[in-house]
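Explain this protein:
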Amino acid sequence: MIALGRYNSLEIMRSTQVGLFLGDDDGAEVLLPNKYVPKGYEIGDSIEVFCYLDHQERPVATTLRPKVTRDGFAYLKVADITDFGAFMEWGLEKHLLVPFREQSVKMKKGYQYLVHCYLDDETFRLVGSTRIDRFLDNDNHDLSKGQRVALVAHRKTDLGWEVIIENKFKGLVFFSDIFREIKTGDKFDGFVKNVRPDHKIDVILHQEGVDVLEPSANSIYEKLKMSDGYLALHDKSSPELIYEAFQMSKKTFKKAIGVLYKKEKIVIKDDGIYIK
């Protein structure tokens, strides 16, 4: 079955004046218009395309890659406001509609908003929504401590940044665990730090534990060697400077240089660390 709003791997069935017709194993077909037809194709080849409804509400395929796919989240710009709602720029010819009922705040042309893309059950159209919390549910997650997860930055709170975990769950990165600039819509990986009894999930942007100390220590030592054996960083340096240099937290940095110190590979002084 050809899935709207997702990437589909389809077989090139036949060529026509308007484009290629692509099909799946169930016998369903969709048109790939001429402007998206790749060079050097052959009938029977497999091609990956994104499928959605065109301006005439007909299923169509494209080789363009939208900024968001079905059930995903992205930070999109409002291209226009009409009587139907806000139309968002998402990388395709036909803009993504966010109906007025799906706007958590009244949207303005030229502004950007975090948008969830979903398939409307009544119209079978892809639409957007800024009512983000409605699409997140922590009650039945299967996440575990230490698990690597994909994150999307949602909004800043008094405690830290709310993030969307794996396009399904809500999490929080505390300010004390942030060592880089974060903006709404940023996409990055992180790790589950804690799963609370009330289903709230704490997330960190770096891995914790002994397993990361050797790679972290090696990273610091290699940078020392490339810097003539000296770095102007030590256990009193700011977390921001440490993250900028090594993309690791100050806690991990201190443990890593402790490993190097115990192995007698470095000397720690007031002005920085030196290769011994």
